Fold these 2 entries.
Entry 1:
Amino acid sequence: MNSSWRKILATVLFFLIFLDLTSAKKKKREEDTSSIPTETSAVKIALPEKKEFDYFSDIDAPTLENVIHGSPESLRSAISALKRSRENMSESEQVLHYVAVSIMQICWKSQNFIENTTGENFKNGYTGAVSSSKNGIYDPFSEPKDFLAYALPCLVLASSETRSDYFDEAEAALKSALNLNKSSVFANYLLGILYRRKEDFKSSNEYFGYASDLEPNCFECSYAFAESFMSISEYSSAFSLSERLLQNFPQNKNLLKLCAESSFASGDMTNAELYVSRVLQLEPENSYYLLFRARILVKKGEYIRAASLLDAYARKDSSSRDYLVLRFEVQKNWNKNISAATTTIENALVLYPEDTEIVLEAANLASESGSKIAGRSGEELAEQILEKNPDNFQALQIKINSMVLSQKWTEAYKSSTELLKKESLPNSALFTHIKICLNSNHKAEAWQYASKLYAQNPTDEEVLQSYIDVLVSTGRNQEALRLINQLIPTSAAKMKSFLYYEKSFLSSGEAAILADLRSSLTANPRNRDSLFRLYRIYYNKKEYRKAQYYLKQVVALSPNDESLLKLNTELDNLLRN
């Protein structure tokens, strides 16, 4: 009995112990499970901030930031800091030293920076990008992860100009770099270069401006910013910035040249000549600036000095495109030697047959003189330009002027009417259209334009001439005579000559008409209209000797005008008979 009881008791105890152990395990499982965060109960654990520059993580932040900033001053600071431990430089320090030196030497050449570096001996993406850039190759990282990985391959923009097939990729890389650090001087500068080479000059100006603002003392940034205004036709801004920069770099030839070019482009001939002279003091054999000075003198109307410089230049090169253009202008406008000017522009056409300016100059001369240049009329030469550029305003005007000279009034009216549909037309186009209207039976239209111009600017001489011409041609004689008599006493010689010429159409009797025409020639002996009218008067009276006297003077003013030469030949024949 005792033995059985012991067995039962042992079994009960074992069972109780088993239940207790099972309960304990379950409780522990529940406790462990309750410590696992659920979607609603999870608590975010603060992780260490991920470092952007894993490769350069052992380098102190200010030094790394100085390299990224990339200005001459910050690069010098970084290079100096890295050199302090030259004997014990780590691999990453040597690589960063090489990167900093390379940025300085590639981007900021005016620093003339020389520094020995060993970083290039370590072969990785950073050194590879820099070395490739120096060799004119764009070599991007496969997976760029930091600022320098994006920016360093783009150093090729400042070291080489031979290729352009990487521009889109480089643009994206530089923008990614600037998203990481928008205050990088060298990255903004490189993006300015990229846009300049893509001919997006507005964006180029913008990024050069950023770089210049970030580092005002960096010559390359400030110079590029000043120069970029030339490409967007803001010449005054280019001049003011370059002149200000010149205060710190008074002997810099590129700055002097930029001052000369920008002042010339903005119409400031005084400063243009001043700066060209300073360039020639530093480079007396610089033929481009010798010719540039001649161009300024021509613009100023100082033809004698300009001719002297052109003579000096011709001893070196008489076939230069710019030389021929300037020589032509001097012969045409100063010497009044149309034959010589014709020969010069014909030589230019042979050497530069597709040059727009030369073709236009030839077309203009042909149109004005009524002659043919290289066998072509002004209208034909203008058509050469219009075939490639139908909207070329100068060519359109020359074509119309040639029609006027040939008295093709119907065609001239049609072309001139089309031209007037363009915006921002100069008054010269309106004056020509008024003349065409008067000769093509559109006098009401001529009056509409002339009266409007006169109401807007009643003191302008060209406006007055056009207005008086219309008054006379449309029979508004009393108003015309009143205005002419009012203006004659105070007018300059050329204007006075015009007024007497117009007055001759309002005078009664031959004696009064002849008196007005002679007064016109007294004021301006080269008034072609007055000379030609006197020729006509005497020709109609069959006083051929007197007619010839005046016609020869007209021919002398336009020696290549075929219509005048024909009239002169006819008159010679009459005098022989």
Note: The chain has a mean pLDDT of 89.
Entry 2:
Amino acid sequence: MSNKGRIYKPVLFVIVAALVAEIVLGSLFTDQFGAAMSNMLYWVGDHFGWWINLLAVFCVIAGIVIVIFRWGDVKIGGKDAKPDFSYWQWFSMSICSGIGCGLMFWAMGEPMYHFMTPPTAIQAAAGSREAAIFAVSQAMFDWSFVQYFIYSLPALAFALLCFNYQKPLSMEPMLELTAGEKSKKLTTFMHIICGYAVACGVSNSMAAGLMQISGGINAVFGIPQNALMYLAITVLVAAFFIFSCVTGINKGLTYVSTACMICFFALMIYMLVAGDTMFIGKIGTEATGDLLDNFWTKITMNNTMVPEDQWANEWPITFWNSFFIYAPVIGMFLARMGKGRTVREFLLVEVLVPSLFCCLFIAIFAGQIISVQTSGAADVWAMIQEEGMQTTLYQVLGSMPFGKIVQFAFLVTVCLSFITLADPNCAALSTLCVHGQEIDSEPPKTLKIGLGVAISAVAYLLVISGGVNAVKGLLNLGGLLMTVPTLWLVLINFKLIKPLLKSKSHLASDVPTQDEISAPDQRRRAVAKGLTVVVQKEDGIVS
């Protein structure tokens, strides 16, 4: 019988207390709290943006190295392990779990900001051809390769720990294998940091999603946006994602992610047929070329010698931070997809499939919104300034053929997208709040329900109190803190894979011991001290 673990009370209590404190500050001292956290956004970027950029570069290089060299040959779970999910289920859940409802709006909204307010570094005038190509390529880049390298490497570490080394789904094995001994306090601290980070992230995403959904309901049905509407949406969306989470990954999420993918493809096909197909094809192609030409430059862009230009802090650095804040927790979820796959196959699928999908989706929708702006059909930028992004996007969709149907389909897809983000993150958050859970089992249902309700309550209160901007600043600080466990997980992959390569069987039943994992380090230290190292091998003794 699989082990579901027991409640990790210190972690659960501290996370709940921190969320309550956040709500109190955001509700009673909204202006002061919001101002402090908004300033935090720029402070983190100005002082640590270089570190965040370099770590993003390192994650990409580390992933490429593992794929190219022999490390990629190891099979997750051992040579006899069989995958638990079909390729379609794997693709759907990997794509949907990382993008949420944000892609739906930023695919059209983000390019408009880059188009009309480009960074100083590219030396392009607002609204120019160069700015348009850069805008589409930057949006494609922000939602693709870097994000999934940052997610997939921690996922690989958890997959190896759980499937090959038969460890529980926890941060504790990582700390034990690194430090050589158990540290309950450090494990508790790491779980608290990761749990609070993902709780804030999901709450913030849900708060933004509530406003987006309410904007869609207003556009489709004409119902005014107010606190009562937000409450009704919160209850309905929470009920769906909690139900999906409680039913488990093999049921609820597989069905919802499949439905979401069908909606995604339907919307893309519609936009290609009903939109400016020629323009979309041209700018999408050129944007792809710009992305490939400037791949590393886009990761490391900052405001060197132009401190007044905050574009990098507001966009790429904030994106990398948001990925780091989710990385360990998303990794716990994505690790389940690795069983029965080689390390190389796992990384290639986890990076390339969602990245290519996001690039295609953004190229289509960003191309259309740029076409509307440049053709004079509508001044989308002015509409965004006056009415907000979510309202404007629904208006643009409503002006196309079968506008009301498209708006409704878009609204349904937004709801499904949020569920596919909240479900795995709620499950992973629940996993952090239990001791010793095996990767094939699920956390207690009551814990999932309780945390799901808490996340939804925070999101609702953030919307009606106006505290969403404050949480964004807090997330930027949280992302900086989460760079440490993320880097830890990335590096431990090399330590985990090396003994598996030597064993050649990669069998979960042939688990390398702690001594075998640490042997190379022990030998190096012994040699440095001038000692003779003797190692027992199958074919004799080698000294």
Note: The longest helix spans residues 30-68.
